[in-house]
Every structure is written in structure tokens, then in C-alpha cells.
Amino acid sequence: MNSPPSSFHLLAKPAGARCNLACDYCFFLSKDRLYPGSDLRMSDAVLEEYIRQYIESQQVPMATIAWQGGEPTLMGIDFFRRSVELAEKYRKPGMQIQHTIQTNGTTLNDEWCSFFRENRFLVGLSLDGPRKLHDKYRRDRRGKPTFEKVMVGLDLLKKHGVDFNILATVHRANAGRPLDVYRFFRDEAEARFIQFIPIVERDNDTGFQEGDSVTKRSVRPEEYGSFLCSIFDEWVRNDVGEVFVQLFDAALAAWAGAPAGLCIFAPTCGDALALEHNGDLYSCDHYVEPGYLLGNIMETPMSELAGSERQRRFGRDKYDRLSQQCRLCDVGFACRGGCPRNRFTSTAKGESGLNYLCAAYLGFFRHIDEPMKTMAGLLEQDREPAGIVQQYRREQAELEAAFVRAGRNDPCPCGSGRKFKRCHG
Ligand code: SF4
Ligand code: SF4
Question: Which protein residues are within 6 Å of ligand 1, measured from CB?
């Protein structure tokens, strides 16, 4: 057996695939088929084993107890009170515990939010943008829109001072509206932490990572690339250091030569596992399917399963199965071929295993090269990357002054090479 990893991330699903909504693109709802007849509720025995084993297996100063779904709040608040109590019971001396939960926000009330605040939960809220873009796919079980309820939940989180981030999926309906989405999050939702997750949904009946066609809701690669570029341009000129976009931070890490903070952009993976309500442990949240079931933590210790040769191979495969095109790619140091679950297309030379989102990553990483070099340079001098915003402002002010000074027959300050009077004049 391999030695277990010194730390790994685990997403626990206490209510399995159960959810009060039925978002069209949800990849998890169909997972209830894996547990026919089950009430999809984590028992107290599994809860205690999970917390005990997880804390024990983390050989680092901080352990993150992360809840996800389905909709985890369907378990009721007492379940989470108990989880906090158990985390305290098993916490090692000096160890910090971070509690996180991903929710659709529609069940939140004052009681939930004061509980989150009291126990310093970090809450991830699923929101896809302004009303029309959010409501396109995020609907309840009767097909009713959910935006209104999510915004009530968001206001409650803010009222109680709960730390939150926004998790937004990018799909066919909102990909063409990057600035509407980003500015809504920044200015109206007042989010300081944002994650974008591209919807790449395989068109099959199993709900597993099979087949090579995608549904109509899935984002088009080029569109996803432009979406990221537009938001990046807005962010880098105005919001660095104020708003944190997970993907941009991960990219900066690559330019700065630091480890990727995001598994999809790391050379190998395998340290982000998923735990089902009954204690079944899977290789990854995106591979909750029979072929990737490692075992059950009520029978085999979690650290043994996480360190098993099978799971380590799963993680190494991300690198070992990289296409030749990726190995030679100029942005490969940042992209690393992306997440293996999306590697179902072929390269120009016909080699299989290219990421469906390749065009997006290629376009995006090339687009951000210059500003990323600038920010990485600032970091190297022990300065804040946010300094880039001041640089852009200075350049903009100089350009505006040059426009004011320019004579009709002078070269245009925009750099077009044409006379001012025939260009911006
Ligand atoms: S399969 Fe994808 S999402 Fe899962 S751990 Fe690997 S890179 Fe991350
Ligand atoms: S941009 Fe495309 S070719 Fe380059 S590493 Fe990423 S997936 Fe591979």
C-alpha cells in the first residue's frame, strides 16, 4: 500500500443527491439511482466516523469539513450542530477546523445564518447571474424560478455577516453575457469571492462520464474562453485585490511558479474525494459512479482508501494520459490539460484525450499572459498584485492627456498609425 496523503480534500454529501430544486443541468440528481430504496440521509454513525477519520487523517494544521449535495441543508440544522460538536470532539490540539457548505440558498433563514456565523462557516451560494440568466436553468421541482428565494438567502447571509462566496455555472444561457454576470456579482450581490464552473454535460442516459456529445445547455468552448477574457479584462483593470476570482488566482499561481490552487490546473489530481451519505468513498465529486467507488469508510479506513494504489493511479493518470498536443502546448504550464472528465475530444492529429474546453483555455491563457507576467513580477518584488490596477489607471490618464494634446494632423495617440483627425479625432 502507498502511504496515505498527508492531507486531502473531501466533499461530503449528507443528503446524497436529494435536492429541493431540479436545475436542468445538475449532474448529481441522477446519482440517487446508485442507492435505490435509500432514504439518502447520513446516519449519526457515518457522520461520526467521517469526522473522526477525516480529522485523524489530516497531517496538517487545518482540516476543512466540507458539505455539498444535492442540497445539504435538507438534513436540518441539528445535523450540522452535531457535526460541529463532533469536529470539536476529535479536533487535534492546535488544529484549526474550517466548516464549509455549498447551498442553493433557498432554504436559508435567520436561524441557519446565525448558526453559520456563530460557527464561522464559509457558505458557497449557487447563483448564475441576474434574474433572467439565473432562472433559465435553476428551477424548482415544479419548474418555478428560484432567483427571488436565492436573493433572500443572500441578504440573510449578509445581514448576519456570514462569509460567503458565489459559485456560478457558465452555460449556453449566460456565457454570452460575461460583464452582466460579473458586475451583478460584484456590484449587486457584493460578492468578494467568485467561482466559475463551466457546464459540460455529457449527453447520455447514465449521468456518468461517458460518450463524446454534450447537451445543448453545455457551454461552447470558444464562448467560455471569451467569457473568461472579458471578465478578466474588467477585473484586472479595476478589482484585483478587492474581488477574488478563483480561476484567476489559480492562473496567477501558475505564472508565479506556485502550486495550482485548483485541481483542474494541477499536473496530477486525486486529492479531492467525495463521500456519499452511507460512507461510500469515490475518487472525485465528478466521478461518483460505480467504476470509481474506492470502498466504504465503515469497513476500510478512509486514509487507506485515499492512499490506495487505485486512487493514486487515478491522480497520476491526469498527467500520464496527457495528449502530445498538451505536452507541447505553450500554455500547458497553466492548463495542464484541464480536468480529465472533459477530455473526450481529439487533437488535430487525431489523438484522443483532448479537453473539450481546449479552445477556451488556449484563448484565455494566451490572452492573460502580459498582465499575469506583470502581477507575477510584482509578487516577486514582494508587492501586491493589486498594484497592476494603479498601473492601468496611470496609463489611462496618460492616454487621455495625449488625446487632449493631440493636433489634428498628429499621429493618433491610440497607436493606430493614422492621423488623429482620421482616427479618434
Ligand atoms: S477528476 Fe477533475 S475535478 Fe476530479 S480531482 Fe481530478 S482534476 Fe479535479
Ligand atoms: S490549452 Fe489545450 S492543448 Fe494546451 S494544455 Fe490546455 S487542453 Fe492541452
Answer: 263-264, 269, 272, 284, 286, 318, 339-341
Q: Whose CA is nearest to atom 8 of ligand 2?
A: 326
Beta strands in 9-149 (DSSP E): 9-12, 62-67, 96-103, 122-126
The three cell numbers of residue 147 are 432567483
State the DSSP H helix or E strand holding residue 84, giving kind and residue range, or none if neither. helix 77-90
- Residue among 280, 137, 289, 131 nearest 210 (CA): 289
Q: Is 275 in the pocket of ligand 2 (CB under 6 A)?
A: no
Three-state DSSP state, 124: strand
Q: What is the pTM of this model?
A: 0.92
Q: For residues 202 and 249, is the Cβ–Cβ distance under 8 A?
A: no
Q: For 349, phi and psi rounded to 5 degrees?
A: -90, 5
Cis-peptide, bond into residue 307, ω within 30° of zero: no
Identify which of 263, 314, 320, 356 to mutate to test ligand 1's pocket (most ligand atoms within 8 A of the CB): 263
Give 279-302 pLDDT, tens digit per residue.
Answer: 999 999 999 999 999 999 999 999
Query: What residues are labeled active site?
Result: 285
